[in-house]
Design a protein that fits this description.
Alpha-Beta Plaits, about 260 residues
Protein backbone atom coordinates (compact mmCIF):
# COMPACT_ATOMS: atom_id res chain seq x y z
CA UNK A 1 0.00 0.00 0.00
CA UNK A 2 1.32 3.52 -0.81
CA UNK A 3 2.19 5.94 1.97
CA UNK A 4 -0.78 7.67 3.63
CA UNK A 5 -0.37 10.84 1.54
CA UNK A 6 1.26 11.14 -1.89
CA UNK A 7 1.02 12.66 -5.35
CA UNK A 8 -1.05 10.61 -7.76
CA UNK A 9 -2.58 10.62 -11.20
CA UNK A 10 -6.35 10.19 -11.03
CA UNK A 11 -8.37 8.73 -13.89
CA UNK A 12 -12.13 8.19 -14.16
CA UNK A 13 -13.55 6.17 -17.04
CA UNK A 14 -17.25 7.03 -17.20
CA UNK A 15 -19.94 5.52 -19.45
CA UNK A 16 -21.98 8.38 -20.90
CA UNK A 17 -25.72 7.87 -21.28
CA UNK A 18 -26.02 5.61 -18.22
CA UNK A 19 -28.83 7.53 -16.45
CA UNK A 20 -31.17 7.50 -19.43
CA UNK A 21 -30.16 3.91 -20.15
CA UNK A 22 -31.39 2.81 -16.72
CA UNK A 23 -34.80 4.54 -16.97
CA UNK A 24 -36.42 1.40 -18.30
CA UNK A 25 -38.95 -1.20 -17.19
CA UNK A 26 -37.75 -4.04 -14.98
CA UNK A 27 -36.71 -6.63 -17.58
CA UNK A 28 -34.96 -3.99 -19.67
CA UNK A 29 -33.21 -2.67 -16.56
CA UNK A 30 -31.81 -6.16 -15.98
CA UNK A 31 -30.39 -6.15 -19.51
CA UNK A 32 -29.10 -2.59 -19.07
CA UNK A 33 -27.31 -3.62 -15.89
CA UNK A 34 -25.69 -6.58 -17.60
CA UNK A 35 -24.53 -4.42 -20.52
CA UNK A 36 -22.97 -1.88 -18.14
CA UNK A 37 -21.29 -4.65 -16.13
CA UNK A 38 -19.70 -6.15 -19.24
CA UNK A 39 -18.50 -2.74 -20.46
CA UNK A 40 -16.99 -1.93 -17.05
CA UNK A 41 -15.25 -5.31 -17.04
CA UNK A 42 -13.79 -4.50 -20.44
CA UNK A 43 -12.50 -1.12 -19.28
CA UNK A 44 -10.93 -2.59 -16.14
CA UNK A 45 -9.39 -5.51 -18.04
CA UNK A 46 -7.70 -3.05 -20.41
CA UNK A 47 -5.64 -1.56 -17.58
CA UNK A 48 -2.53 -2.78 -15.80
CA UNK A 49 0.18 -1.47 -13.48
CA UNK A 50 0.83 1.33 -12.64
CA UNK A 51 -2.92 2.07 -12.86
CA UNK A 52 -4.87 0.61 -9.93
CA UNK A 53 -8.63 0.38 -9.54
CA UNK A 54 -9.80 2.46 -6.59
CA UNK A 55 -13.57 2.03 -6.91
CA UNK A 56 -16.42 1.09 -9.22
CA UNK A 57 -18.94 3.93 -9.01
CA UNK A 58 -22.14 2.90 -10.76
CA UNK A 59 -21.34 3.62 -14.41
CA UNK A 60 -17.70 4.58 -13.83
CA UNK A 61 -14.36 3.06 -12.85
CA UNK A 62 -12.06 5.23 -10.74
CA UNK A 63 -8.32 4.53 -11.08
CA UNK A 64 -5.14 6.00 -9.67
CA UNK A 65 -1.40 5.73 -10.23
CA UNK A 66 1.08 6.89 -7.59
CA UNK A 67 3.56 9.36 -9.08
CA UNK A 68 7.21 8.24 -8.82
CA UNK A 69 9.43 10.15 -6.41
CA UNK A 70 12.07 10.23 -9.14
CA UNK A 71 10.74 12.81 -11.63
CA UNK A 72 12.83 11.21 -14.38
CA UNK A 73 10.43 8.24 -14.30
CA UNK A 74 7.32 10.37 -14.83
CA UNK A 75 7.47 10.43 -18.69
CA UNK A 76 7.40 6.63 -18.79
CA UNK A 77 4.39 6.59 -16.45
CA UNK A 78 2.54 9.12 -18.62
CA UNK A 79 3.34 7.19 -21.80
CA UNK A 80 1.89 4.05 -20.23
CA UNK A 81 -1.17 6.01 -19.13
CA UNK A 82 -1.73 7.30 -22.66
CA UNK A 83 -1.52 3.77 -24.09
CA UNK A 84 -3.93 2.37 -21.51
CA UNK A 85 -6.49 5.12 -22.17
CA UNK A 86 -6.55 4.13 -25.82
CA UNK A 87 -6.89 0.47 -24.85
CA UNK A 88 -9.88 1.33 -22.61
CA UNK A 89 -11.69 2.84 -25.57
CA UNK A 90 -10.86 -0.11 -27.83
CA UNK A 91 -11.95 -2.69 -25.23
CA UNK A 92 -15.17 -0.73 -24.61
CA UNK A 93 -16.07 -0.72 -28.29
CA UNK A 94 -14.96 -4.30 -28.86
CA UNK A 95 -17.32 -5.60 -26.16
CA UNK A 96 -20.13 -3.26 -27.23
CA UNK A 97 -19.79 -4.56 -30.80
CA UNK A 98 -19.82 -8.18 -29.61
CA UNK A 99 -22.88 -7.57 -27.44
CA UNK A 100 -24.64 -6.06 -30.42
CA UNK A 101 -23.69 -9.07 -32.57
CA UNK A 102 -25.18 -11.43 -29.97
CA UNK A 103 -28.35 -9.37 -29.54
CA UNK A 104 -31.61 -11.17 -30.13
CA UNK A 105 -33.69 -9.14 -27.66
CA UNK A 106 -35.38 -5.92 -28.86
CA UNK A 107 -35.92 -4.30 -25.45
CA UNK A 108 -34.94 -0.65 -24.95
CA UNK A 109 -31.69 -1.59 -23.22
CA UNK A 110 -30.43 -4.00 -25.87
CA UNK A 111 -31.35 -1.73 -28.77
CA UNK A 112 -30.14 1.41 -26.97
CA UNK A 113 -26.68 0.15 -26.03
CA UNK A 114 -25.27 1.63 -29.23
CA UNK A 115 -25.91 5.10 -27.79
CA UNK A 116 -23.46 4.58 -24.91
CA UNK A 117 -20.16 6.44 -25.10
CA UNK A 118 -16.97 6.56 -23.02
CA UNK A 119 -15.42 9.64 -21.46
CA UNK A 120 -12.14 9.69 -19.55
CA UNK A 121 -11.15 12.32 -16.99
CA UNK A 122 -7.48 12.69 -16.03
CA UNK A 123 -6.33 14.88 -13.13
CA UNK A 124 -3.45 14.86 -10.65
CA UNK A 125 -2.81 16.02 -7.11
CA UNK A 126 -2.29 15.02 -3.51
CA UNK A 127 -4.34 12.14 -2.18
CA UNK A 128 -4.62 10.44 1.19
CA UNK A 129 -5.22 6.72 1.63
CA UNK A 130 -7.34 5.30 4.44
CA UNK A 131 -8.21 1.67 5.02
CA UNK A 132 -11.85 1.08 5.96
CA UNK A 133 -12.17 -2.58 6.95
CA UNK A 134 -11.03 -4.47 3.81
CA UNK A 135 -11.24 -1.44 1.53
CA UNK A 136 -8.69 1.21 0.65
CA UNK A 137 -10.29 4.62 0.14
CA UNK A 138 -8.84 7.73 -1.53
CA UNK A 139 -9.48 11.13 0.01
CA UNK A 140 -8.46 14.67 -0.82
CA UNK A 141 -9.50 17.83 -2.60
CA UNK A 142 -8.11 16.58 -5.91
CA UNK A 143 -10.27 13.46 -5.68
CA UNK A 144 -13.27 15.81 -5.43
CA UNK A 145 -11.99 17.86 -8.38
CA UNK A 146 -11.64 14.78 -10.57
CA UNK A 147 -15.23 13.78 -9.89
CA UNK A 148 -16.58 17.31 -10.36
CA UNK A 149 -14.97 17.37 -13.80
CA UNK A 150 -17.48 14.74 -14.92
CA UNK A 151 -20.08 17.53 -14.84
CA UNK A 152 -18.66 19.81 -17.49
CA UNK A 153 -21.47 20.69 -19.90
CA UNK A 154 -19.88 18.84 -22.83
CA UNK A 155 -22.17 17.02 -25.24
CA UNK A 156 -22.35 13.25 -24.87
CA UNK A 157 -19.43 11.99 -26.93
CA UNK A 158 -16.25 9.96 -26.65
CA UNK A 159 -13.61 12.25 -25.20
CA UNK A 160 -10.59 12.56 -22.94
CA UNK A 161 -10.52 15.56 -20.60
CA UNK A 162 -7.11 16.32 -19.08
CA UNK A 163 -6.44 19.10 -16.58
CA UNK A 164 -3.67 21.55 -17.40
CA UNK A 165 -0.77 20.28 -15.22
CA UNK A 166 -1.16 16.74 -16.57
CA UNK A 167 -1.67 18.05 -20.09
CA UNK A 168 1.66 19.90 -20.00
CA UNK A 169 3.49 16.80 -18.79
CA UNK A 170 1.64 14.43 -21.14
CA UNK A 171 2.24 16.58 -24.20
CA UNK A 172 -1.05 15.85 -25.94
CA UNK A 173 -3.09 12.81 -26.89
CA UNK A 174 -2.18 11.08 -30.17
CA UNK A 175 -1.68 14.31 -32.11
CA UNK A 176 -5.36 15.25 -31.79
CA UNK A 177 -6.02 18.99 -31.71
CA UNK A 178 -7.51 19.75 -28.26
CA UNK A 179 -10.34 22.05 -27.28
CA UNK A 180 -9.27 24.33 -24.44
CA UNK A 181 -11.69 24.69 -21.50
CA UNK A 182 -11.88 26.84 -18.40
CA UNK A 183 -14.32 25.28 -15.95
CA UNK A 184 -15.62 26.96 -12.82
CA UNK A 185 -16.98 25.05 -9.82
CA UNK A 186 -18.35 26.45 -6.56
CA UNK A 187 -15.68 26.28 -3.88
CA UNK A 188 -12.98 25.11 -6.29
CA UNK A 189 -12.41 28.11 -8.55
CA UNK A 190 -11.43 27.96 -12.24
CA UNK A 191 -9.85 24.81 -13.64
CA UNK A 192 -8.03 24.83 -16.97
CA UNK A 193 -8.34 21.66 -19.06
CA UNK A 194 -7.95 20.29 -22.58
CA UNK A 195 -10.52 18.04 -24.25
CA UNK A 196 -9.62 15.55 -26.96
CA UNK A 197 -12.23 13.95 -29.22
CA UNK A 198 -10.55 10.82 -30.60
CA UNK A 199 -11.60 9.76 -34.12
CA UNK A 200 -13.63 6.56 -34.45
CA UNK A 201 -10.89 4.66 -36.29
CA UNK A 202 -8.39 5.32 -33.48
CA UNK A 203 -10.58 3.99 -30.66
CA UNK A 204 -12.07 1.04 -32.55
CA UNK A 205 -15.57 2.53 -32.82
CA UNK A 206 -16.01 1.75 -36.52
CA UNK A 207 -18.43 -1.11 -37.08
CA UNK A 208 -17.07 -4.10 -39.02
CA UNK A 209 -19.28 -4.88 -41.99
CA UNK A 210 -19.55 -8.66 -41.58
CA UNK A 211 -19.26 -9.18 -37.80
CA UNK A 212 -22.96 -9.73 -37.06
CA UNK A 213 -23.33 -12.23 -39.89
CA UNK A 214 -20.72 -14.53 -38.35
CA UNK A 215 -22.80 -15.09 -35.21
CA UNK A 216 -25.26 -17.96 -35.45
CA UNK A 217 -28.87 -17.78 -34.32
CA UNK A 218 -28.19 -20.41 -31.65
CA UNK A 219 -25.27 -18.42 -30.23
CA UNK A 220 -27.69 -15.54 -29.80
CA UNK A 221 -30.28 -17.81 -28.16
CA UNK A 222 -27.71 -19.17 -25.70
CA UNK A 223 -26.67 -15.63 -24.81
CA UNK A 224 -30.28 -14.55 -24.14
CA UNK A 225 -30.91 -17.67 -22.04
CA UNK A 226 -27.83 -16.86 -19.93
CA UNK A 227 -28.97 -13.27 -19.59
CA UNK A 228 -32.58 -13.92 -18.59
CA UNK A 229 -32.19 -17.33 -16.94
CA UNK A 230 -30.28 -15.81 -14.04
CA UNK A 231 -32.71 -12.92 -13.79
CA UNK A 232 -35.71 -15.27 -13.58
CA UNK A 233 -33.81 -17.46 -11.13
CA UNK A 234 -33.31 -14.43 -8.89
CA UNK A 235 -36.98 -13.52 -9.08
CA UNK A 236 -38.00 -17.07 -8.15
CA UNK A 237 -35.35 -17.34 -5.45
CA UNK A 238 -33.37 -20.11 -7.17
CA UNK A 239 -30.26 -18.05 -7.86
CA UNK A 240 -28.30 -16.52 -5.01
CA UNK A 241 -25.31 -15.45 -7.03
CA UNK A 242 -25.27 -11.85 -8.34
CA UNK A 243 -25.94 -12.06 -12.09
CA UNK A 244 -22.98 -9.83 -12.93
CA UNK A 245 -20.61 -12.39 -11.41
CA UNK A 246 -22.03 -15.21 -13.52
CA UNK A 247 -21.97 -13.42 -16.88
CA UNK A 248 -19.63 -14.65 -19.60
CA UNK A 249 -15.98 -13.81 -19.04
CA UNK A 250 -15.09 -14.14 -22.73
CA UNK A 251 -16.65 -11.07 -24.33
CA UNK A 252 -13.22 -9.53 -24.90
CA UNK A 253 -12.62 -12.41 -27.30
CA UNK A 254 -14.39 -12.75 -30.62
CA UNK A 255 -17.63 -14.71 -29.98
CA UNK A 256 -17.71 -16.15 -33.48
Amino acid sequence: MPSSTCQALLLIADISGYTQFMKLHRMAVNHAKQVIVELLKAIISATSSPLKLAEIEGDAAFFYAVCPEDSAKLPALLATLKTQMLEMFRAFYHVKRNLNSLRLCVCEACTGADNLRLKIIVHSGEVAFERIQAFEKLFGLDVIVAHRLLKNGLAMSDYVLITEPVQRALGGFYEILPEKLRLDYDGLGPIAASVYYPPAFLIGALQPTAAAGRVSFWQKVRFVVKLDGRFLGELLGFSKRPPEIALSQTLLQEPF
